[in-house]
């Protein structure tokens, strides 16, 4: 039954309403209509367990509060477990999540492989062959920035009497179009156009951790690709050709013969020009940053004539 004063559900055999104190001791004297109002046949299952004992009521309240707390924890746990589902609904993602792009497994597999990059760009990389008046023979690497123009390192062609470039086993003559000794860079002009890949420079500076690959002719070996990462930026180095600052450091394997070759990212863009190594260390190489090399086409360069041997 339910108390007519406060509406609390009570067992049918109680004579006192615990919550409000209403006395049902004289209920036998009440008219039948009042008794009918007090007895409800469709009372909820938990109503039969209500007692007039205050201590019992407190225990019941504690149990209910505990159940509510457990339910709340369950909802939190469900929310955590369902974070993956929520993340798949753009309208419910946090702002930070909207700014991220997650590549599929297939995209990651393609992006993590330099083999496709090499197939695309290697035709624009040639071996630079230098002869000097003292019968010295040196080799380096260069890459196309126009069908007849190449970038290489200045120290590769320094003091050269003749310069040739070999793309496919048939070396062709090249002239020195200009040099930037402060950056250890040079531009070569080929005697004929080359139908090879013309490189673009990366629009942004590479950051440490960027995956890169060097393409060139280390130690006069055939064309080779070595892979690594950008290790640091804005390095200053001292070499036999001079001191240079603003260099990119990489753990990509660079050896004599790689100088002047491209350091490319996974998009095939040039992020640096291979330049030097630290002889007393392993995995410490340096490259001229792409921004400095890209400037070669937008500003005057110093002239350098080929040496005339008597």
Furnish the topology, listing elements before pairings.
Blueprint: H1 32-38, H2 54-81, H3 83-87, H4 95-98, H5 105-111, H6 115-121, E1 125-131, E2 137-146, E3 149-153, H7 154-157, E4 162-166, E5 172-180, E6 185-190, E7 211-216, E8 224-239, E9 242-250, E10 262-264, E11 270-277, E12 285-289, H8 290-294
Antiparallel strand pairs: 1-2, 1-4, 2-3, 3-6, 4-5, 5-6, 7-8, 7-10, 8-9, 9-12, 10-11, 11-12
CATH topology of one domain: Thrombin, subunit H
| End-to-end distance | 124 Å
Proportion in helices: 10-25%
Structural class: alpha+beta
- Number of distinct helices: 8
Total DSSP E strands: 12
Biggest beta-sheet profile: 6 strands, antiparallel, barrel
Unreliable spans: 27-63, 66-111
Overall 3D shape = rod-shaped
- CATH architecture descriptor text of one domain: Beta Barrel
CATH class bucket of one domain: Mainly Beta
Order of helices and strands: HHHHHHEEEHEEEEEEEEEH
Strands of the widest sheet, in order across it, are: 1-2-3-6-5-4
Labels describing this entry:
8 helices; 310 residues; six-stranded antiparallel barrel; Thrombin, subunit H; rod-shaped; 12 strands; alpha+beta; six-stranded antiparallel beta barrel
Give an account of the 3D structure.
This protein has helices spanning 32-38, 54-81, 83-87, 95-98, 105-111, 115-121, 154-157, 290-294, and strands spanning 125-131, 137-146, 149-153, 162-166, 172-180, 185-190, 211-216, 224-239, 242-250, 262-264, 270-277, 285-289. The strands form two sheets. A six-stranded antiparallel beta barrel has the order 1-2-3-6-5-4. Strands 7-8-9-12-11-10 form a six-stranded antiparallel β-barrel. The radius of gyration is 41 Å and the shape is rod-shaped. It has 310 residues and is α+β, with helices and mostly antiparallel strands. The protein has eight helices and twelve strands. Residues 27-63 and 66-111 have low confidence and may be disordered. The protein has a domain at 115-297: Thrombin, subunit H (Beta Barrel).
